[in-house]
Each structure stands twice: as C-alpha cells, then as structure tokens.
Amino acid sequence: ASTLGAAAAQTGRYFGTAVAAGKLGDSTYVNILNREFSMVTAENEMKWDATEPNRGQFNYSGGDRILNQAVSNGKRVRGHALLWYQQEPGWAQGLSGSDLRQAMMNHVTQVATHYKGKVYSWDVVNEAFADGGSGGRRDSNLQRTGNDWIEAAFRAARDADPGAKLCYNDYNTDGVNAKSTGIYNMVKDFKSRGVPIDCVGFQSHLSGNPPGDYQANLQRFADLGVEVQITELDIAGSNQAQAYGTVTRACLAVARCAGITTWGIRDTDSWRTGENPLLFDGNGNKKAAYNTVLDALNAA
Ligand code: G3I
Fold first, then answer.
1. One of 43, 88, 232, 275 is an active-site residue; which one?
2. pLDDT tens digit sequence for 151-173
3. The GH10 domain covers which part of the protein (predicted)?
4. Which atom of ligand 1 is nearest to the CA of 203?
5. Could you give the CA distance from residue 280 to residue 266 in angstroms, rounded to a whole number?
6. What is the full DSSP assignment across 84-107?
7. Which of 34, 42, 230, 279 has its CB surrounded by the most CB atoms within 10 Å?
C-alpha cells in the first residue's frame, strides 16, 4: 500500500495523527491528512479548558470541527483527554475536595455524552502517574480528591458512552520502569475488580531509539487483556528514521497493538519546536522516517 493508513489497514490497524482545528484551512496540511491518516486525535480541542471554559458551559466547536472533518473523510477519532492535571480551565484549578470531584465527574459525563457513539476511544485520564522512581501517582488537585478518582472517571465514561474504548494515557512509559510498572499494577487491579478499562496509550515522545524493552513493555500490558495504542509518537535525533521503524515493528509484533498516532503532521506542526520529530518536513514532503514506517507496515 502507498499510504500510512492503507498500509496499517493491511494488518487491521490504524495510522493516525494529532490535528489542530486552526490548521484545517491549510490545503497542504489537509491534503496530507486526508491522504495518509485513518485516525485523528484533537491536539487540544477536546481538553477540559477547551470544552468547559466556564463551569457547566460547554463548547464543542473546535472538537466538532475536527471530528466532522475526520468522519466525513472516512477516519475515526481518538478522544483526548477527559481528565488531565494540565489544561484545566482556570475555574477548576481553584477547586478542591468534593466540589472538584463533582466538577470532574460532570465534565467526564457531559463530554463523553456529547461524543457518544462517535469516538473510537477516549483518553479518560492522562498523565496521572509521577515521573521518577516512586511508581506512584502524580500530585495534583485531581489526585487530592482521593485515590479513587481514576476509577470513578472510567466508570462515569463507560456509563456515558458504552461504545468507546476507555484508555489510560501517559509518557515516559516506553520501557519497563517504575512509572510504567505503577500503571501496569493499576490496570491489573482494575481488571481484577471489574473497573472498566480497555486500552493503555503510550505517548512515545522519544529522542532516538525506544528502550530495548519497548515491545516487551507493550506486550506485558497486552497480556493483561487491554488494547495498547501508540498515541503521540514523535522522535527527535539523527537516527530518527531507524527509530520510527523500530517503534512501528514493535506495534506490529504485538497482536493487541491497535495502531500508531503521530503527534502532528509536518515538523512545523510539532509542539517540539526545532526538533523536527515528525514524518513530513515543513513543506509537506515525506522524510526518510516516513519511508521506514511505510516499509515496516507493508512488510508485516
Ligand atoms: O489557544 C491559545 C491561543 O489562543 C493563544 O494565543 C496562544 C498563545 O500562547 O496559546 C494557545 O494555546 C496553546 C495551545 O497549545 C494551542 O496552540 C497553549 O498555550 C499551549 O500550551 C498548548 O500546548 C499544547 C500542550 O499539549 C499543552 O500542554 C500543545 O499544542 C499540545 O501538542 C500538547 O499536547 C500534549 C498532549 O495533550 C498530552 N501529552 C503531551 C503532549 C505534548 O505536550
């Protein structure tokens, strides 16, 4: 196959990208989007600050633009993200305790209800685990509402949209380490207690090759009975093309790895300014990394 989406589809997988609503008028951007990708994630437009700028007042304009553009071009959508300690609207940053918990759950319910039946999966909770060696939760006002906030969010999302796969999404979880093991233990616990969780997202913001146990780490999560997804892939460094190939082959080697999403289209679209971590250059030309990904998908 000659495009990323079609090549991934040969093994039943998707190939996606983050999309910014403000770029949907850029014809180079939209041409690549429509040609190459079969899954879309809103880069910012479905986050809490965007969707509930004032408490109880919801704004789906940016998210809906992205979703409608995707669906009308035959693509699916990953919802991102219902609860995250960053990009909380100002009004929520000032809340705590039961008042915040109520606002969090209402947010999950309202947004998941708005997109009911329309998204492939939701990142229900994003980046809730701490970096470093503790393997524990990150401190945040969300966490301070009680350690059960994550499972409460997953249950509320399931109730609101039973058809969406519900994911936990995080970064620096690319190999077996304290952080990924903390998440692994949470997923295992959720599965044993019947808390609804269907997938784990590995953001994979990388510099050079992924850790040597990248595939093994994906596999240990898959063995818990959840889908794994590579959700925000971008790779800096001189061996970028090789590293992209390695990541792609790792996903292909894990039966429950459903697909790969890159965090933007062209290098100039990336949040990693100056690092040129994506598959297309600023003019929209395919880079060497594009070819290693396409070749890996076609070889599977
Ligand atoms: O929308 C405002 C705009 O009105 C204003 O003029 C401008 C001035 O700074 O800011 C705009 O908001 C920015 C927004 O991106 C949209 O461009 C925010 O300042 C900026 O902080 C925000 O950055 C996003 C970042 O998440 C927020 O933490 C990046 O685009 C986005 O790529 C990034 O994505 C995250 C994932 O959601 C989660 N994982 C990590 C990943 C990278 O940080």
1. 232
2. 999 999 999 999 999 999 999 99
3. 1-296
4. 39
5. 4
6. ESSS--HHHHT--HHHHHHHHHHH
7. 279
